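Minutes, methods subgroup
Present: GH (chair), OT, SY

1. OT presented the first of two proteins processed in the latest run. Sequence and structure tokens recorded below as shown on screen.
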Amino acid sequence: MYDRNTISAGIVHFGVGNFHRAHLQYYNNLLLEYEDQRNWGIYGAMIMPADGPLYSALKSAAGIYDLIVCYPSGERKTHCIRSLIGLCWGEEDPEPIIEQIASPDTKIITLTITEGGYVVNPDKSKSVFWYIAEGLRRRMVAGLPITILSCDNLQHNGDTAAKAFLSYFDAMYPDIASWARENVSFPNSMVDRITPATKSGKITDVFCEDFIQWVVEDNFIAGRPAWERVGVYFTNDVTPYENMKLSLLNASHSLLCYPAYLEGFKKVDAVLSDSRYHNLIKDFMDVDVAPYVPVPEGVDLGVYKETLLRRFSNAAVSDQVSRLCGDGVAKFAVYIVPTLAKILANEKYTKRLAFLLASYYKYLKYERTELGEKIDIFEPHMTAEDKKILTGDSLLDFFELSPFAALDLKDEPSFVDHYKFFVEHSVSEGFKALGI
């Protein structure tokens, strides 16, 4: 076991949540066992007001926490993760975060800020964009290039990060903008590990499935860890891997979660044990998605899809349906809209995705399950104006909600008819209409 006193921080990470601590930290904890990799410890930047309780708990534990890996057999294996060697909560003091970004030891900034975190609001104070801009200002003076690596579920997440950060720099830090275009790299990456928001044991404990994957574009301007030693796959093009994962795994999560929540399901494995949902997801992957997925070389798509169904059914992980429902607006834009656009363009079967949109509409509008149980809606990127759209006189006003507006769904009479039927009928009646 490595001596933490020999580790220096080469990475600053924004978003020290469960997924990060089950994924990147897991890989890094393995990597730091190599003596020549001891300069790649992670400094955690926590900048959200709600981060206080977790920050305090992690700080008191010197950043050390338990990662509990849950196997389908029911076996659990606990890993003591010790690679988080520094930590700061920006609400208390932003300066240590900026100093760490500016440090010559820091070569990479990593991000898990959710799909909606890349929406730029120049007027927002102390955003992730502001922190990094302030750090880059000092790096620019010292002539220190750096890599910003997104670890979020976005298509071309590095390209998305580059667009967001450079647009912010253009608006607020024009001197940094021109420097960053030459001295900051933004690799694309694909991340995968189901990490439920389990609340048991200590607040710092993290639970996850046994499956893990990370595919990264090898584009690091200031050097990188030898992550390939611990199972990370480097490539020149992440696109086929991210398309496969986002359009199959993440889109399937969205398809199952809203109707399941409306019917009162709480756990994803329970949902998959219901043959209706198992068949719904299998048909969606086989018929609606697979024809449009470029398969990475060496990957058997049939095996990949079967593996997804097994992962969803892992009762030891027991992921929460409510977690999958959160931040739907941002997720639909990434996981669903691209596939729906292709289906519409090719005049293919749209009933399953009409069922999804109708379930999402009812979830948002009524905020109740079909049994009358209150639903706690978590939509941090939905505006008050979007909320007004949901209460419009016409059901079709919902199609004006971003990100659906670009699809012109009102001009698709077959889709409209399916959608209206599913809105006006129960989920179980919807399944019957789908022939399940």
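2. SY then presented the second protein from the same run.
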Amino acid sequence: MELEDFFHQKNIINLSFFNFHNAITAGYFANRELQILKVNDNFKKFFPLLGNVKNAYFPDVLVQLGVTEVQVEQFKNDIETKGFVQIPDIHISIEGEPRVYSLLSTKTTDNTFSYLNGIQGQFVDRTAEWKLQKERELLLEQRTKDQNTIEEKNQKLEDLAHRLAKYLSPQIYQSIFSETGEQKVAYSRKNLTIFFSDIVKFTDLTDVLEPERLAAVMNSYLSEMASIAINCGGTIDKFIGDAVLVFFGDPETEGETEDALKCIEMAIQMQIRVRELQKYWAGRGVPQQINVRMGIATGFCTVGNFGSEQRLDYTAVGRPVNLAARLQGIAEPTEILVDENTKALICSAVNCKFFKKITPKGFARSIKVYQATDFISKKHRIRRKKLFHSGKRVEVNVIDSSDIRAVIEELGEVQKNFEEQTTKNNSPNQDKS
């Protein structure tokens, strides 16, 4: 007779199941055929929809609880092959309330009492933990959405700022976007060098060119003039049709002499660039050469934000602005005329010759006018960036100088294409028919 025969089977099972009686988990014990032999009170309380589960087939109980078919198969396979089961998330609806449990089960083995050899397990209520996890996931999801919204708005602001930058001189743009709080309307009196230029017989050009071609020519002209102005440190005040107004000395200055020299260097570079682009413009239908005349004057101006509550314009007003416009008006094509104040500042570095004495409209006294040609120093002249090359076999003209890196890359592609064509033409397998 075996030892187990001396003990009451039900009492032994109850004794082995003692730890589950007061457990807060829903505990069960089943035999090796997965028939439920015993459950604790919490099992009945957690799953009242099951009623009497004794002797029920445990996988059927799982199905009644709404456990998915995949998870039921996982349970049976894991108990059979591994001897234990860990299913972290089982979603069950109890009295209309969604709850989440994890199922832990294992095979039990007892050499003394064979009827204790079975399956013992428990459902652990993870609902509160699951809710916290879902809340965390929702918060993370919302955070991601908020982050995406912020990035999208930042991108829109960046795009807007990029577009806005095209309407403002870089110095003015930096001044506006570096301010904190409301932009104050401030005015100051400064000694500026004013530059004014326009295209000779521009009206005739507008009459003969189609709108699209006129726009292409004007945009390329103004783009190149603006690039030169910025590179030389000038503040672009405005474009008035074909006219360009630039001043030096605000918002940054290196002294009145250096400001005047920078302005002259800018004017000379502009004239050189206009000559370089003549062939390009001719290819766009311009019937005759584009010539530009320029006037430069130096003196005290009032600078600041002028305009209305609806629209402000950061600009300079005063006698030198008017004088620069008058000088430009009397200049011959391709000439750079300067007033006597400017000439006094630049004469040690720039070749200047007397042009004539004039009394501009609106001025009380006559003014000596000089023609500025180029810098005296050869070293200064050869330092200028060249955007046109004419050699024995190749002629290169940079049309858009705003992105030199892109120009270099394009020239590299041209070189690569020529090398590929040359290699192909010189190949011994080339068809000579």
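Chair's summary of item 2: Residues 127-165 form the longest helix (39 residues).
Next meeting: continue with the remaining queue.
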